[in-house]
Amino acid sequence: MDTIDKTDAFICRTYMRQETAFVKGKGTKLWDESGREYTDFLAGIAVCGLGHCHPQITRAVSEQAATLVHVSNLFYTRPQADLASLLCEKSFADRVFFSNSGAEANEAAIKLARRYFQKKGETERFRIITMDQSFHGRTMATLSATGQDKIKEGFSPVLEGFSHVPFNNIGRLEKEMDDTVCAVMLEPVQGEGGVSPADPEYLKAVRDLCTQTGCLLIFDEIQTGMGRCGKLFAHELYGVTPDIMTLAKALGNGLPIGAMMATQDAADGFDFGSHASTFGGTPLATAAALEVVKIIGDDGFLSTVRKTGNYFKQQLKTLAETHERIVEVRGRGLLLGLEIDGDAGGVVAQMMKKGFIINGIQDRVLRFAPPLIIEKQEIDGLIIALDSLLRS
Ligand SMILES: Cc1ncc(COP(=O)(O)O)c(C=O)c1O
């Protein structure tokens, strides 16, 4: 049996996959079983920010794998301590809880927000407001938080205490606010929902509203964080700071790790025994993430991401001028979306034939989230391929 047949025979049918099996990656390139080369404009869905098999990460992982892989959180380990302190140094946060995925980081944030108020005796204050078209994960709590019906289909009853309001609409959020709300949770740029950035004025108004009402503001930066939008964290572009932030995806450049980060005040909602994860923050995953934060957290690196992102967006806008099928170009940094008047899935499959990996979301949006090290000539190559495809 070949890889595709074997996978289809034995793996649960939850993923719609392209008919390609990859065997190797380096930088921005991937190779399939037949040896064919592809340029990656997806990075494992915004995960391999530093590209595939970055030598510094490979070295850190190899050395750590040969030294100590796992001991549990009943003990202390150095890479975990170093990563937590570096993440706090580079952000608003004072404390970190490590998880293995984005959904689990959000679970931690949801639990912390509820416990923060319950610990103070405010047991009725448990509601969390999130946005229409948001995406926060696939566990029961995070799918309940997600503002898309299709994600919840077949899983009712979903968890109590979540309401959704239209994104970028402060009036609707104000209406939904009352003294039962413990947190507002949102993505600074909605990723899965169609690459839709928050309006700067909106994000500032959300912060003010949360401060006035005393509820916690949670930014889900699982997709937008780690340099993806041109700053280490996307909220820095807006000058708006949350009380809690979640990270995952690019944090480990492919090693599974997530983080829930909080101010000291918010973090005090947890006590010994309130929350735990067997694998959360293993020496192996944190050793990888430590190198990632060191590289991506560098100002020079982030400035290059912003320049490349601006160039890419400009090229997409120029393309849009000559193609009526392109409805809108959206996004920040190297998280960009192209809304087209037609089926995105077909374009994705055709681009794959031309040797470019891109992604389609919400039926009509092409999403680009390449490794942050993507080069201008690779962007030019993609634009030429898209141009000829959209013409035909
Ligand atoms: C904004 C956001 N939150 C949460 C998640 C869930 O992360 P994971 O798939 O690692 O559980 C994702 C994944 O796409 C995401 O984009």
Using brief descriptors, characterize the structure shown.
392 residues; alpha/beta; Aspartate Aminotransferase, domain 1; Aspartate Aminotransferase, domain 2; 2 domains; seven-stranded mixed sheet; four-stranded mixed sheet; 17 strands; binds pyridoxal-5'-phosphate
- Give the low-pLDDT segments: none
Shape: globular
Total number of distinct structural domains: 2
The end-to-end distance, rounded to whole angstroms, is 36 Å
Q: Quick one: biggest sheet?
A: 7 strands, mixed
Average pLDDT, all residues: 98
Q: CATH homologous superfamily name of the largest domain? A: Type I PLP-dependent aspartate aminotransferase-like (Major domain)
Proportion of residues in β-strands: 15-25%
Rg computed from alpha carbons, rounded to a whole number of angstroms: 21 Å
Summed up, the helix count is 15
**What is the name of the CATH architecture of the largest domain?**
3-Layer(aba) Sandwich
Helix share bin = 25-40%
CATH domain topology of the largest domain: Aspartate Aminotransferase, domain 2
| DSSP strand tally | 17
